[in-house]
Amino acid sequence: IAHFLNLSSILTQIITLFRHFAINACLAPLYSLEGMHIITVEGIGNCRRGLHPVQERLAEAHGSQCGFCTPGFVMSMYALLRSSKQPPTKEQIEDSLAGNLCRCTGYRPIIDAFGVFAKTDDSLYTASPSESANGKAICPSTGKPCLCRNETDVNGNESSLLSSVKTYLPSSYNEIDGNAYNEKELIFPPELQLRKIMPLRLNGFNGVRWYRPLKLDQLLQLKSCYPEAKLIIGNSEVGVETEFKNAQYGVMISVTHVPELHTLKVEEDGLRIGSAVRLAQLQDFLKKVIAERGSLQTSSCQAILRQLKWFAGTQIRNVASVGGNICTASPISDLNPLWMSTGATFQIIDVNNNVRTTVAKDFFLGYRKVDLKDDEVLLSVILPWTRPFEYVKEFKQAHRRQDDIALVNAGMRVHITEAEGNWIVSDVSIVYGGVAAVPLTAGKTESFLVGKKLDYGLLDEAFNLLKEDIPLAENAPGGMVEFRSSLTLSFFFKFFLYVTHEMNTKGLSEGLDVANMSAIQSYTRPVTTGTQGYELVRQGTAVGQPMVHLSAMLQLPNFPLGSLVSSSQKMCPVLTILGQLDSSKKRILGQLSMMGRFLHLMSLLVLARSLESLWQTPMIMQKLLQIK
């Protein structure tokens, strides 16, 4: 742990040069990892060499149950710690795990396990605790009576209950010293640092060709030779298409090393964002710009930054790009309505180095069709600065807050100017996503609002026009037509309240009713907290005891509990397992073997019951006899 939280000067220098990113291995083509240092859960620690402190914590806090999701949680936390110059906050820890799903634990033990890495001042916990007036110890984290140190409760009626029920308390930071981990932390291999990056031309299965240019002119030359080639950055969309939709692409061009597509510049008229910029990079860049420029010019930046927080998970944002999301032209893209409403423009370059500019509103032509010819490449996005009294707001409604696609989303912008003593709408843009094959602009509503004072009196007419602008047929794809239609109206109402409140803070409009204040507040979720209570009743050996299950230590490094076995006989049993396995692993393997036979029998019974006509066939009976 000290190795993580008290980083040496050498490790600090390495972190400034190299950064660890957690990505989804299932979507990362092997070709795309050339020249990178790949770290897997097996590489950071295992049972033989010693578990890494991150692995150790997860096991001891009962954060690994079935083990299916365990490696992903470990690597997400490991990447956060290795890429952080200072100990992360609890909010950062939870954000880094947002892309990891678990169906067993309820997340509480996982959050408890990794929460120790967020503590930065252990003297608060190891020193003598302060006491309240009634003599009870005060927790330095919460300022409330400390359950860890108070053995009795002031309420006598509860003392008998507490004597038989113990509360599970997460181990404190100083109790996990990582002594079992004898390995040094992995560094970026020197041979990769010294290796010169070269263009790639690789051949894969079924005639697939993979190219990696290093310059824009190389990319354009490849595009002229292969007009229908797919441009790859994070593979978060193409990977799904090829893996699950049987899409076939003969030529793929990776643009991860083309510097002209990775531009991030602050210019006089706005921000220039390269099409290959990762969404995680865009987040960091926008935070910096907002801090430097203030709120007057960055209302659009703030809206995009807030929307990115709910855009997929950390692992996807680490690889997915701005241009990839735009050119995919998904009807439910969270960013495209914002590019359109903010007045962003797209710069496009063809194979002859001719550059043209198109506004975002004209770029999307139909379902997953864009204004981009086969011999053209999206070069960059120009996001203009916002003007005084110009406000931009983002909206998204999904089944759940994180890691889910939108039912309806929207981007809205309004510019208010003073005319003859009144503050009126001089420019407005309202764009909805998830309601048609392309993001829809509410043209009639926009025309109605221009030149009018933004007050409650125009809401009814605006709502009626919105219903005409954004029609949803009863058989519209996605269903829930009535609910989604109501969302289009509620988003606009919330935008109206937001602008009204912003103008009120400047003393230019009436304040909001108290009942409406919650509509303008951004969603924030407090840091997860939880405790586990259980009754200690010994029933035999381990039943009823808070013991770490035996397979946890094997699941953390993703220990292979099964492997392919070659045999000259079909359907024959495995009599012995040769190899250096200790008794606990042999016992686990034996239990898995018995469980596997039971599940196999159950699956055959289900098959037989569903196919009653085959129940008496010799094949089924012979199969049952073999595993009896």
UniProtKB/TrEMBL annotation:
Organism, scientific name: Aegilops tauschii subsp. strangulata
Boundaries of every FAD-binding PCMH-type domain copy: 203-388
Gene Ontology molecular function: FAD binding; iron ion binding; oxidoreductase activity
UniProt key word Zinc: no
Cofactor section: FAD
Entry protein name: FAD-binding PCMH-type domain-containing protein
PANTHER family per UniProt: XANTHINE DEHYDROGENASE
Pfam assignment, any one: CO_deh_flav_C
Keywords attached to this entry: FAD, Flavoprotein
InterPro entries referenced in this protein's UniProt entry, alphabetically: 2Fe-2S-bd (IPR002888), 2Fe-2S-bd_dom_sf (IPR036884), Ald_Oxase/xanthine_DH-like (IPR016208), Beta-grasp_dom_sf (IPR012675), CO_DH_flav_C (IPR005107), CO_DH_flav_C_dom_sf (IPR036683), FAD-bd_PCMH (IPR016166), FAD-bd_PCMH-like_sf (IPR036318)
